Amino acid sequence: MEKQDYQPIEDYGIIGDLNSVALVSKRGSIDFMCFPDFDSPTVFAAILDKDQGGYFNIHPLLEDIKHKQLYLPETNVLLTRFLSEEGISEITDFMPEEETYGGKEIIRRVSCIKGEIRFKIACCPRFNYARSPHTLVQISENTVLFSSLGDDKLVLRLQSSIPLQYRQNDVYTEFTLKAGDIAYFLLEQVDKDHPDMGNLAAFVEKSLVDNINFWRKWMTNCTYRGRWLEMVYRSALVLKLMISHRHGSMVAAPTFGLPEEIGGIRNWDYRYTWIRDASFSVYALINLGFKKEAAAFMQWVEKQCDDIDDAGYLGLMYTLDGRKDLAETELEHLEGYKHSKPVRIGNGAYNQIQLDIYGELLDSVYLYDKHVEPISYRFWQNLSRQVDWVCNNWHLEDEGIWEVRGGKRQFLYSRLMCWVAIDRAMRIAQLHSFPLPPRWQKERDTIFQTIHTEFWDEELQSFVQYKGAKTVDAATLLMPLIRFISPTDPQWLSTLRRIEQELVSDSLVYRYRPNEEVEGLTGGEGTFSMCTFWYVECLARSGQIDKATLYFDKMLGFANHLGLFAEQLGVRGEHLGNFPQAFTHLGLISAAISLNKKLNRLNDKNNN
């Protein structure tokens, strides 16, 4: 492969087919793609190893190029534009979505807008996380087959409207387009005997129209009409791309191995369904009017509950198809993004105890039951067993929301979400007149009292991160958001001030101050974008509307050129961690909805 440079994480856009996602750089290179599913091995992973990872690059051979990227409005069709005094060209990238086309295809449509432009294409797949060799067979002047020699046995076909040349099992071709000319490229998973597409140009043009119509029709379901509409729409489109059409589950992010600190070791695999992340997503989707996706996730959750014979065995994360075994390994042959090693696949946190997941799950079920569709009694019986387990075990130590690897503690957030689990279960039971064990209220109220007595520090005048701690945690920002405490309660306002003193840098929020003893890890990380949006929402609900609006607008300014966010932001505003991050985008949606309501009420008050 030809040498490539590492592009900033924020220099990428994403396309997807509701089974998988590809990252496309502003320079026209697909540098990351797991295929054909989110949790499949990579075919392209140059973002994790620029020399060995593999990529699919199309780029004009022009001097002094300016690169621009944009989405067609209300779609996930990505346009990458190249502007030079010599000419203007663009690549239209998209993946025909699963609902219409069955997925498993990438389409790249290259057009010359002005001038006469020479292009170079390099299609260099590296199968099975760049661990398996492959062969190339040229079927015709315009068609080649890439076949993995590894256990995956994946076969990809590249078809083009221009003649293809290759060397060393990779495609390298140059071609020229004049103003008005278009070249087509289709990369798809096929059987070896699969027939050619036939009229490639006609297929691409029809697929493009169908794809645009699909996304715009989907967006008509969105009921949000408030401020920051474009950013909310983009976040909704991002969340949709991370939902598996086949299973109804949702990945936390479509990538793995992107570092929380350049050169650091916090490089995790997020291509799985966290009960926590997905449950928060249900809240965001319901609030935007996307009930179909919320229902699909609930059906997936109900299946997991059926699969769990004994209460308390709810996993904190699952594979897309519901399995629990996510054994963590390291890809030692990959150098990592900007030499950030190790590159991990799988996630060793899957077997941790995290008590908060019961609260997040029950809260999402409560919202679904209230706003979408009543749950079945059988589902309720399964959930009731989980609530009984919480009543017996809420006092246990666990690894907490941030999945620390330094040992278990009694974390405030875990205790708080155990309260939510019982409280929401009681509300569901009361709504449907389901059997309501008397013990539930007793345990819920006991948890409430312990939070106020055991996690409140009189000296700090704040709720603290864990029992006996002298530190605060940004997860505490959820206390008023899940209605445990009033957003104007003096104890909460005092806690909010302490969080501002210790964790807020300008408008950006750290999730906590790194502590190697607690975390079991060395190194640092950036500010946590999701926590910043929680902070904005807390400010809005406490009546600090001007401050909340200012910080929200500033935070939106850190989005990349397409409105996308990674997990974290560095000190210079660089994006860090896996990209894009569902948690960040659902946090944006929630903050926008909350702040918009407050501003509307303020305007109504001023106008009366």
TrEMBL record:
GO-annotated molecular function: hydrolase activity, hydrolyzing O-glycosyl compounds
Domain GH15-like: 229-592
All copies of domain Trehalase-like N-terminal, residue ranges: 5-142
Alphabetical list of SUPFAM superfamilies matching this protein: Six-hairpin glycosidases (SSF48208)
UniProt xrefs under Pfam families: Glyco_hydro_15, TREH_N
InterPro entries per the UniProt record, alphabetical: 6-hairpin_glycosidase_sf, 6hp_glycosidase-like_sf, GH15-like, Trehalase-like_N
Biological process according to GO: carbohydrate metabolic process
Record-linked PANTHER family: GLUCAN 1,4-ALPHA-GLUCOSIDASE, TREHALASE
Protein name as annotated: Glucoamylase
Species classification: Bacteria, Pseudomonadati, Bacteroidota, Cytophagia, Cytophagales
